[in-house]
């Protein structure tokens, strides 16, 4: 297995190595053009809320959420997050397509908080980390030092809504093995153990409250759009045991994952495989939308 080009094997990175890594990153696409410009200017019943900006470049990286203007206490509140890992494109584009094409049809049944791109610097540089070499999806706690994560926490605190459902939109890509896991191991000074990249869609439920029927409703909705990932030869997906067809569990709060940022009853993290020969980019976007709507239909029927 190749050695990562930054750092010394077995030694965690210091500030010099982190700075060297940052200097090797470059802008590859436009957050303004591909994300901000796709947000509606006005949306009846919703506020297009600027909830902050990233300190690396506040003008370039404003942060937006689409939020129900007058939440109804009698309706479930749904949080949708995309782009926690900026390189996972369909999470961002799927969230934007949901906003523009589907959100209005659910507006009378739910209160919504939709954050389409949590990590715009990561989106532009096609990165898992932020410029500080921190993973926002391991940083959803106050004082983590990751502004992407901390500003979402502040947004939710300010809105002060009880969240009933949270769906966090992600991808598992071939670059997880070729770049991001080797970089993580080098940063932390540990041995890198790649995992099998599953070919297909899967979900990550919350270990403490998996809500299997909810997860399976989403799986069946997504199955109409793209294929569901099978288990590997060890009966696992990315090293975790299956608890249901296409579903594994992580302890989201213990790992400070975005999916653990609330106490919602219904929580899941989507994982789309954009490098599959059997899935187009638009299919991946549609899978994210199908996951959201499948979850909404389940909650509407069962909440």
Automatic annotation (TrEMBL):
Domain Peptidase M14: 18-303
Stored CDD domains: M14_REP34-like
Highest taxon above the source species: Bacteria
Annotated Gene3D superfamilies: Zn peptidases
Gene Ontology molecular-function annotations: hydrolase activity, acting on ester bonds; metallocarboxypeptidase activity; zinc ion binding
Classification via Pfam families: Peptidase_M14
GO BP terms in the entry: proteolysis
UniProt xrefs under InterPro entries: Peptidase_M14
Protein family per UniProt: Belongs to the peptidase M14 family.
Protein's recorded name: Peptidase
Higher taxonomy: Bacteria, Pseudomonadati, Pseudomonadota, Gammaproteobacteria, Alteromonadales
């Amino acid at each position: 297995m190749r050695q990562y080009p930054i750092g010394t094997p077995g030694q965690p990175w210091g500030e010099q190595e982190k700075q060297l890594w940052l200097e090797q990153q470059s802008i590859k696409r436009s957050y303004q053009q591909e994300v901000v410009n796709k947000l509606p200017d006005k949306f009846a019943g919703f506020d297009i809320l600027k909830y902050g900006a990233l300190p690396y470049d506040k003008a370039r990286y404003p942060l937006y959420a689409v939020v129900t203007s007058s939440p109804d206490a009698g309706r479930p509140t749904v949080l949708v997050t995309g782009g926690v890992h900026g390189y996972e494109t369909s999470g961002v584009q799927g969230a934007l397509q949901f906003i523009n094409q589907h959100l209005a049809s659910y507006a009378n049944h739910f209160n919504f908080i939709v954050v389409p791109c949590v990590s715009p610097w990561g989106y532009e540089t096609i990165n898992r980390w932020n410029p500080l070499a921190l993973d926002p999806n391991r940083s959803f706690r106050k004082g983590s030092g990751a502004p992407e994560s901390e500003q979402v926490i502040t947004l939710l605190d300010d809105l002060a809504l009880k969240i009933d459902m949270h769906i966090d939109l992600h991808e598992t890509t071939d670059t997880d093995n070729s770049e991001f896991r080797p970089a993580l191991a080098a940063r932390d000074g540990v041995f890198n153990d790649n995992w099998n990249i599953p070919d297909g869609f899967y979900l990550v439920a919350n270990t403490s409250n998996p809500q299997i029927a909810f997860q399976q409703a989403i799986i069946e909705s997504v199955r109409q759009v793209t294929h569901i990932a099978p288990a590997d030869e060890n009966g696992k997906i990315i090293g975790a045991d299956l608890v249901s067809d296409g579903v594994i569990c992580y302890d989201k709060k213990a790992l400070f994952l975005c999916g653990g940022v609330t106490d919602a009853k219904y929580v899941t993290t989507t994982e789309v495989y954009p490098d599959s020969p059997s899935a187009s980019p638009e299919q991946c976007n549609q899978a994210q939308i199908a996951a959201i709507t499948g979850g909404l239909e389940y909650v509407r029927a069962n909440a």
